[in-house]
Each structure stands twice: as structure tokens, then as C-alpha cells.
Amino acid sequence: MKFRVDLNACQSMGQCSFTAPDLFPLDDDGVLEFAEPGAQEYVSEELTADDGELAEEASFLCPMRAISMH
Ligand code: SF4
Fold it and tell me: Which residues are the signal sequence here (predicted)?
């Protein structure tokens, strides 16, 4: 299982990082570290079962519905 973040939909609200800071690290400006300038999306590496559960919770909590599981 992997998670995907639609970086166009993400509004840097940070709920994902509160839930799973290791999976959704924020930089000093409160932006997801993996959100490269100009990138449309980020797809994670294959997740462990525990990380998959955390990512699913973050997906549920994201107010922009920017996180999807694959
Ligand atoms: S919770 Fe959603 S909108 Fe907020 S930073 Fe995470 S992915 Fe972006």
C-alpha cells in the first residue's frame, strides 16, 4: 500500500502531519517537505502495515481530501 497526495488540492493545513509526522513531515514554513515546487503529486514508497493505517487515518482527516490510498 502507498499513499498519494494531490499537491494541487493540498492547502498545507497540516492535519496529516499531526496524525503521522514521520510520513507527512512539514518544513519550517509548514509545507509538506516532499512538495517539490511545480510537482502535481507525491506518491510514497510502499508502506508497512502500521504506516498504512496511519496514512489511512491522515487521509480521512485531510480537509481537502488530498490524500488517497493505493
Ligand atoms: S492534511 Fe491535507 S491539506 Fe493538510 S497538509 Fe496534509 S495533505 Fe495537505
Answer: none
The set of cell numbers assigned to 18 is 499531526
What's the rounded Cα separation, in Å, for the pair 15 and 63?
8
Region of residue 54 (phi > 0: left; psi between -120 and 50: alpha; otherwise: beta): alpha
CATH, range 3-69: 3.30.70.20
Residue with cell 502531519: 17
Q: What are the pLDDT digits (tens) for 3-61? A: 999 999 999 989 999 999 999 999 999 999 999 999 999 999 999 999 999 999 999 99
Residues having CB within 6 Å of any atom of ligand 1: 5, 10-16, 24, 32, 62, 64, 66-67
Domain ranges across the chain: 3-69
